[in-house]
Design brief:
2 copies of one chain form a homodimer. Among the domains of chain A are: 6-67, 434 Repressor (Amino-terminal Domain); 80-109, no CATH class. The first copy, chain A, is 43% helix and 0% strand. Chain A has 7 helices and no strands. The first copy, chain A, has helices at 6-16, 21-28, 32-39, 47-57, 61-67, 80-86, 92-109. In chain A, α2 crosses α3 (32-39) and α2 packs across α4 (47-57). The first copy, chain A, is elongated, with a radius of gyration of 20 Å. The first copy, chain A, binds a DNA duplex (30 and 30 nucleotides) through residues 20-22, 30-34, 36-37, 39-40, 43-46, 49, 138-139.
Chain lengths: 161, 161
DNA sequence: AAAAGGTGCTTGCTTTTGCAAACGCCCAGC
DNA sequence: GCTGGGCGTTTGCAAAAGCAAGCACCTTTT
């Protein structure tokens, strides 16, 4: 367990790099007061600002996004995920379906390498009652969106960090 | 490069999913006018909104971020088949299932690249060109694998094991 | 043919972002 | 002494984000 907020994380990374707030602000191309507010959680930086800060800190932007709760925490990459995401011959939905199945397989195997020993080839996924789990960002009206069940329409596992 | 802006990409994905603008807006938890403006490039959505839209579209958030030029490009690592075959965390049976589904998807798409490989994520171009993108992928996979998800009825691997 | 409902788009409006210009504080020099 | 420059913080304010309401148009339904 590291830090709880994106600002703390940025501040931690900045202090670890032993650079001042103004320095980082300059390198990131943002104003110093704004960076100060970001670090203290007063403001919520937009995507572009986050990206620039990540550049200034020379850390991965994805780390920042995960910290910000914007990107979901991904399981450690195993090549399959990247290959699927990069595949130009698949639609995004198809990629999603493949990755869901892949994740469910990995969950079955509990992360153990099983390439030699074939485990019990169970069914991958069952029907699961869909809890809405509406994580409103701010003031999202409870609209009770329905899933239309289109042709190739998977459902994301919604893996919270 | 199929699309040049994030808005076009979102619109393309939305139309590919065959849902209306209002539907996506509702599922994403944003207002319809705002989504309209985002798709036409009038507004630049924040990170949170982008994430909600990605959820609503059920596509990977990474794809959106790369499109927005916010996340760096990731190494292509092409070759889904090789990556799957090389994965040590899957059983042979699981590999076979994944590759079956992968092949059925490719057959659906008739071998045409339907999602562009993420290009160099430099946020310079504002050139807007009307992308036709009417290659609807509507054919149903014949028989992917009886295992987890026949492509028309994807599973929800929210397995609480 | 009007009512009802669908599509996307435009219009005011409030809220938030992000910055420039301050501020107070501490420490090195001239 | 006090001048200068570093630090992080506070304070308005222009600009953009984001939404509710309404618009115009097109299909269905009654």
């Amino acid at each position: 367990m590291r830090v709880s907020s994106i600002g703390e994380y940025i501040k931690e990374q900045r202090e670890q790099a032993k650079i001042s707030l103004r320095q980082l602000a300059s390198q990131a191309g943002v104003s110093n007061p704004y960076l100060s507010q970001i670090e203290r959680g007063v403001r919520r930086p937009s995507a572009e600002i986050l990206q620039q800060i990540a550049k200034g800190l020379r850390i991965s932007a994805e780390a920042l996004y995960v910290q910000a709760g914007i990107l979901e925490d991904r399981p450690p990459d195993s090549g399959v995920r990247m290959a699927v995401l990069a595949a130009p011959e698949l639609t995004e939905r198809q990629k999603q379906v493949l990755l869901e199945i892949y994740d469910s397989f990995r969950k079955e195997n509990d992360g153990q390498p099983v390439s030699q020993a074939p485990g019990p080839a169970k069914k991958a996924a069952k029907k699961a009652a869909k809890a809405p789990a509406k994580k409103a960002v701010k003031k999202v009206a409870p609209k009770a969106a329905r899933a239309p069940a289109s042709s190739t329409t998977p459902s994301r596992p919604t893996n919270p960090s």
